[in-house]
Amino acid sequence: MNQESIRYFYEALRDTDLSVVKSLVKRCIDEQVHPIDILHKGLIRAMEIIGQEFKAGQIWVPEVLLAARNMHAGIDLIRPQLLKDKVRSKGKFIIGTVKGDIHDIGKNLVSMMMTGAGYQVIDLGIDVPRESFIQAITDEKPDLVGLSALLTTTMLEMKDVIQYIRQTFSTPPKIIVGGAPVTQSFAREIGADGYGEDATTAVELSNRLLLRGENG
Ligand code: B12
């Protein structure tokens, strides 16, 4: 995919007509573009441009909301292909966007890629209070927990959630974190077991962490 196709994706995310993004993604699928490329080189790249414009004050929340709606519709179309090679469950994974934060596109992608990689995924949604993470861990006994945060304010909430989990359980699940403002060093600082910069890394990281756990 080239510079021009990014422009099509950008325009499709900005369009009030949902059918524009749908037909663009369908056309890419018909032309045998790999779904991972549609995702990373098309949809995510276009959303990055929208993020930059939002930051610069060139567009506003309603336009970003519209882009998020369109992005979800595009992802829905490639989901079946991304989930095609499903294998038996590798482990149980609970994920949520932490309290105060309603961004869910990245979290949903991580959920989807983890499902595709064979994990049983329990998605707690957005704006999840720490008590809900504790309750879900108690009920579901997951191998891994994923925390997502997109705001510099809510990434601090991750630290509290991790502390709370570690205080509550004598053998806590592995905890991984991610989201645009999160970094490897921040993850280490708040006591996470790992940091994933994108959904593919989340899968690789989870595979690695669970393998290490099994080997003691
Ligand atoms: C879409 C969007 C919105 C939409 C969200 C819609 C939705 N359903 O999610 C709406 C309009 C609701 C919104 C609202 C707000 N937003 Co906003 N938003 C964005 C935007 C443009 C894109 C985010 C996105 O979806 N990216 C695409 C996905 C695929 O990427 P991602 O989320 O980073 O996820 C990937 C990785 O980070 C990673 N990952 C994510 N989670 C996890 C979890 C784990 C465990 C792992 C391993 C990996 C991982 O994998 C994902 C896939 O590759 C960003 C800009 C940006 N650059 O991030 C701003 C941005 C995050 N928003 C911002 C702001 C300020 C806000 C508001 C406060 C605006 C306002 N004035 O109201 C509100 C806050 C609402 C709230 N309480 O949460 C700022 C944050 C600034 C800051 N420093 O904190 C940003 C950075 C824009 C900016 N540059 O100013 N926003």
Could you name the key traits of this structure?
216 residues; alpha/beta; Methyltransferase, Methionine Synthase (B12-binding Domains), Chain A, domain 1; Rossmann fold; 2 domains; five-stranded parallel sheet; 9 helices; globular; binds cobalamin
Describe the structure.
The protein is of the alpha/beta class and 216 residues long. It folds into 2 domains: 3-82, Methionine synthase domain (Methyltransferase, Methionine Synthase (B12-binding Domains), Chain A, domain 1, Orthogonal Bundle); 92-214, 3-Layer(aba) Sandwich (Rossmann fold). The chain is 59% helix and 10% strand. The chain contains 9 helices and 5 strands; from the N terminus they run ααααβαβαβαβαβα. The chain has helices at residues 3-14, 18-30, 35-55, 61-82, 105-116, 130-140, 154-168, 184-189, 199-214; strands spanning 92-97, 120-123, 144-148, 174-178, 194-195. Strands 2-1-3-4-5 form a 5-stranded parallel beta sheet, sandwiched between helices. Helix 8 links the parallel strand 4 and strand 5 (194-195). It is globular and about 50 Å long. It starts with a helix and ends with a helix. The mean pLDDT is 92. Bound molecules: cobalamin. The site of cobalamin has 36 residues, from helix 3, helix 4, helix 5, strand 3 and strand 4.
